[in-house]
Design goal:
single chain; alpha/beta; Glycerol-3-phosphate (1)-acyltransferase; 8-stranded mixed sheet; two-stranded antiparallel ribbon; 9 helices; about 40% helix
Length: about 260
């Protein structure tokens, strides 16, 4: 995987010279179009509130979030790096995407590639996809869902160690994000998109993982990091649920914002 804004080497092996040359342009155009549609859905057709901090996001930043719908990646981007990412293309985030859904047909794969999706095999234990995400993260921004799959009822699922491997490999700035309500607004399996729902997003301070720096790569270390990250997400989820319920949230550090 090349740095954000450049063409992935494996992508270049699968496509012609003209397609590779146009990839950055078509990728940016597709992300802009999809983001515009998602913005209308979240902030016009639904009532989405975002509570975020002033963050200095740069290369090697990992945005971690709970997972309730297939549109969560866009919402994480809105809450953390938009609109800055439109001027600094290297900040457009990469993310893992389920092969069985996003890459099921050539047309879906075409769109997914341009949305900076990296295919991950069913079962989510895919070392090739993880290595590609590590390479992308070193020079860019990535979104990761430590649970590894969507929660059907909104409850947090146990963290998978994959996110810990990312941290041990790149020592990124890890920013926790919690989303509540998208499972009611996005139900592709049965009901499709729904409007006039309450959605809340809370962005926390970077997670302090310095005690894990320098540790050898092991499953126990990776799982320890993953559990620490999920603890930070859980704390932000409590805030997001309070916001969604209409309760006032007070804190000196973050700013309450509503796009």
């Amino acid at each position: 995987m090349a740095p954000a804004g450049e063409v992935d080497a494996s992508y270049g092996q699968r496509h012609g010279v003209v397609t590779r040359a146009l990839w950055p342009v078509t990728s940016y155009a597709m992300i802009a179009l999809a983001s515009g549609l998602c913005w209308v859905f979240f902030f016009v057709l639904n009532r989405t509130r975002i509570r975020r901090r002033k963050l200095a996001i740069g290369p090697n930043t990992l945005l971690v979030s709970n997972h309730q719908s297939s549109m969560d990646g866009f919402l994480v981007g809105f809450a953390t790096i938009a609109p800055r990412c439109w001027l600094e293309l290297r900040l457009l985030p990469w993310n893992l995407a389920a092969t069985e859904f996003f890459f099921r047909t050539p047309r879906r794969a075409w769109f997914a590639e341009r949305l900076r999706c990296i295919p991950v095999a069913p079962g989510r234990r895919d070392p090739v996809a993880l290595r590609r995400l590590i390479t992308a993260l070193r020079d860019g921004v990535a979104v990761a869902f430590p649970e590894g799959r969507r929660s059907r009822d909104g409850a947090l699922l146990p963290a998978e160690p994959g996110v810990g491997v990312l941290v041990l490999a790149t020592r990124p700035c890890v920013i926790p994000v919690a989303i509540d309500g998208t499972r009611d607004a996005v139900r592709f399996e049965r009901f499709g998109l729904r409007c006039f729902k309450r959605i809340a997003v809370s962005v926390g301070a970077p997670v302090d993982l310095s005690e894990f720096h320098g540790r050898a790569l092991s499953r126990s270390a990776a799982q320890g990091i993953a559990d620490r990250i999920m603890g930070a997400i859980e704390a932000e989820l409590a805030v997001a649920r309070a916001m969604r319920a209409g309760r006032k949230v007070t804190s000196a550090a973050p700013e309450d914002t509503a796009p």
